[in-house]
């Protein structure tokens, strides 16, 4: 009898799941997202009591609070693309057939906060390849030291610590990749105001990255409107969707009249050899 009851319950659950899958397939992902955002479950989540007050203050549930970024002024390029061009890295091998750039982009002129980037174009038809922003996590992990030089970048540091070798599984074989040191205080990124190192958080990091991208596109205008992806690993699981939230909101606010043609996001716990080989 007990077995029959259990079987009946399982059948009911499977039928319910089947209806759910059928229903989901009949709607676009956007419809499903809107349906979820308007659901009572999300409203309960927003109003859930916590130790900080009567309701949970989740800024990402209401991207409208980032409206001030729509009027954030974009500075003229402090340097040009050619100023940032790397002729050759120390110890790099012969036959490097792709362009490299590195430099600073100001994200807060008042505090003197600047983010450092390393950008590599694809050696194969770079003008037709998508653009990827790569973010290591931590928080505090260098996208240059780890992402670029130990994971998905075009080079590997040789055991002698002085020379480089090519990484045949580099992501720039398929795309143009920006490695961003973020937030200020990570890697070569810095601020002239020491309080920026203690007051940093996810919201400031996301806003700074958004402003960085605006200024970066100003320096590299040929990438405006290019298929754009945001990717990262580890704590980048926070950074990636948070930046995407801001980009999507601003795009909607300006009816797509922005430099961003965001096509997707992806996130990895880490980048093991198996993933690199698959690329």
TrEMBL record:
<protein>
    <recommendedName>
        <fullName>Carboxypeptidase</fullName>
        <ecNumber>3.4.16.-</ecNumber>
    </recommendedName>
</protein>
<dbReference type="InterPro" id="IPR018202">
    <property type="entry name" value="Ser_caboxypep_ser_AS"/>
</dbReference>
<dbReference type="InterPro" id="IPR001563">
    <property type="entry name" value="Peptidase_S10"/>
</dbReference>
<dbReference type="GO" id="GO:0005773">
    <property type="term" value="C:vacuole"/>
</dbReference>
<dbReference type="InterPro" id="IPR029058">
    <property type="entry name" value="AB_hydrolase_fold"/>
</dbReference>
<comment type="similarity">
    <text>Belongs to the peptidase S10 family.</text>
</comment>
<dbReference type="GO" id="GO:0006508">
    <property type="term" value="P:proteolysis"/>
</dbReference>
<dbReference type="Pfam" id="PF00450">
    <property type="entry name" value="Peptidase_S10"/>
</dbReference>
<feature type="region of interest" description="Disordered">
    <location>
        <begin position="44"/>
        <end position="64"/>
    </location>
</feature>
<keyword id="KW-0378">Hydrolase</keyword>
<keyword id="KW-0121">Carboxypeptidase</keyword>
<dbReference type="GO" id="GO:0004185">
    <property type="term" value="F:serine-type carboxypeptidase activity"/>
</dbReference>
<keyword id="KW-0732">Signal</keyword>
<keyword id="KW-0645">Protease</keyword>
<feature type="signal peptide">
    <location>
        <begin position="1"/>
        <end position="24"/>
    </location>
</feature>
């Amino acid at each position: 009898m007990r077995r029959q009851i259990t079987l009946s319950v399982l059948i009911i659950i499977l039928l319910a799941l089947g209806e759910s899958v059928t229903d989901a397939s009949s709607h676009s992902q956007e419809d499903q997202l809107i349906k979820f955002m308007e659901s009572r479950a999300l409203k309960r989540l927003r109003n859930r009591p916590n130790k900080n007050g009567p309701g949970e203050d989740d800024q990402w549930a209401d991207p409208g609070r980032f409206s001030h970024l729509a009027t954030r002024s974009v500075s003229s390029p402090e340097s040009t693309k050619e100023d940032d061009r790397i002729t050759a890295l120390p110890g790099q091998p012969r036959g490097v057939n792709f362009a490299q750039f590195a430099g600073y982009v100001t994200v807060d002129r008042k505090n003197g906060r600047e983010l450092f980037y390393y950008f590599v174009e694809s050696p194969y038809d770079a003008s037709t390849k998508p653009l990827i922003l790569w973010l290591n996590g931590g928080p505090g992990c260098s996208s240059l030291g780890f992402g670029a030089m130990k994971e998905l970048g075009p080079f590997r540091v040789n055991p002698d610590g002085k020379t480089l070798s090519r990484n045949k599984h580099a992501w720039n074989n398929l795309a143009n990749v920006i490695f961003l040191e973020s937030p200020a205080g990570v890697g070569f990124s810095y601020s002239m105001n020491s309080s920026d190192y203690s007051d940093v958080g996810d919201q400031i990091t996301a806003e700074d990255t958004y402003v960085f991208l605006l200024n970066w596109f100003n320096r590299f205008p040929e990438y405006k409107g290019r298929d754009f992806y945001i990717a990262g690993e580890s704590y980048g699981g926070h950074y990636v969707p948070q930046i995407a939230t801001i980009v999507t909101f601003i795009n909607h606010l300006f009816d797509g009249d922005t430099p961003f043609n965001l096509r997707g996001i992806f996130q990895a716990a880490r980048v093991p050899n198996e993933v690199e080989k698959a690329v």
